Amino acid sequence: MQSHAGGEQRLCLATLVSTSGSVPQVPGSSAIFSEKGLVDGTLGGGIMEGDAERQALEAIRKGKFRCYDFHLDADINDKEGALCGGYAKILVDPDPGKHADCFREMANSLEKGEPGIIITSIPADVKSGLRKYWLEAGQTDPGIIPALEELPGKWPGIEAALSTSMKKGATGTMENKAGDLLFIEPVFPSPKLIIAGAGHIGKALAHQGRLLDFEVTVIDDRAEYANTGNIPDAHRIIVKPIGEAVAEIPKSKDTYIVIVTRGHHDDASALKACIRHDLPYVGMIGSRKKLRLMKEKFISEGWSTREEFERVHAPIGIEIGSVTIQEIALSISAQLVQVRAVRRAGKKRSSIATLILAAGESRRMGKPKMLLPWGASNIIGTVISNAVNALCDHVSVVLGADADKIVATIPDLKVEKVLNSAYRDGMLSSVQAGIRSLPPTTTAVMILLGDQPMISTEIIDRLIERYKKSEKAILIATAKGRRGHPMIFSAKYIPEILSYGQAETLRTIQDKHPEEVEEVETGDPQILRDIDTPQDYENEYKT
After folding, report:
1. What is the DSSP string of 109-171?
2. 449-498, pLDDT tens digit by residue?
3. Is residue 264 domain-resident?
4. Same structural domain for residues 54 and 103?
5. Are the beta carbons of 88 and 69 closer than 8 angstroms?
6. Is residue 34 part of a domain?
């Protein structure tokens, strides 16, 4: 990368080694400068990047690296100063080509799918020169780091520092008594984005995925679409039956799959080929009706469990009001970035559990109302089906009176059955019994009443989708300003609800935390009604 008689330009690599306070970029951010200015990358722009460019030109001229501090704390009257109030240490390397062997080793490791760490030795005396070392992840365990023997100076605790940096995926620095620095920079292979479908959305998504640092593979059985002329941004194109290709392609915990084929059959075959794999992201395009039918098919045929299907991002993408092809691709790309960021931060995807309360004695009805006919099933069967076909991640039905009779009518429905032996103590006892049975991964709980078969899957989905976007912790369905059911609350309130006595109800949590309540207008007055009496049943069933 240095200049030669042939005219090859001289390049300089500038890297943020450490930061504190408000700084426009994070440690590890880099920019490449030539004698003509910025070539690629960024340190965040602004005056800091402008100063780095001047430092880079000076380093190129003198042929020596420099590691300097930059403070973003200029006075407000200083027109050229930076007001962020932060600090950055910036390393400027005028001869990155000297470390070609290190970068080559890194490239070979990443090609194999192996992450690792670049160690940059930054001596206090610039005359000593920079050194870079590459360690694959397997070499960073204590006692087996051969490159440490080459490092100048003594570095007690470096094994632990390397291990921590690798586990957290974060850069780090160390300084010894002589003032020498080590910059520790973990590097990971690019996540793999598999796009099933080479149509308009697949093409747009391939372009955006490459810009977002995914390794993009596009699959389609139509050679006239799946080619580099049509999709130049894909790193790899596979022309083969879609389901077969998705099944054969290697998958890992860093593989993201987007299904945007031209038809229901290809969507289903692609999904069957990947749904049982432990992947960070599987998304599939389609209307809610199509997805609901496909979900029923997958579960009934044994192609997936309900929990596996619920992990699929469908409908796909973040809701941004997208209409055009590019906007739809953008909404999918945004969701990919969101999932990748959550995964890197070590967070888990939200898991919404639904509790269907069906333990009451039906005293006003005079007979078990849950067993009364409704549609193709009965009341409780309809409520369960509506919940199972919604965006819930887990569904439990809490039973009490007539439990055996109810269970006998719903044997094939994929729902957990919870017995509340204290059902005569009231509805709160059923809520508490249901909560105790929930998976530990539950992040939010929806409450449905077993005698409200009128509440459709669409209303349930609307409340769930709103909850995922809301900053509030308690959401309640309303109709013309009146509160009804269902409601959702954050799992953080579970200990509080379990502590309630018989005199308290779910309304208690609403009253205690009014600032956390959001009302979601449904426009459907049926959310305000339930079925308690024969007249209620007659009125609602006719409707």
Report:
1. HHHTT--EEEEEEE-SSGGG--EEEEEEGGG-STT--GGGGGSSS--TTHHHHHHHHHHHT--
2. 999 999 999 999 999 989 988 889 999 999 998 999 999 999 999 999 99
3. yes
4. no
5. yes
6. yes
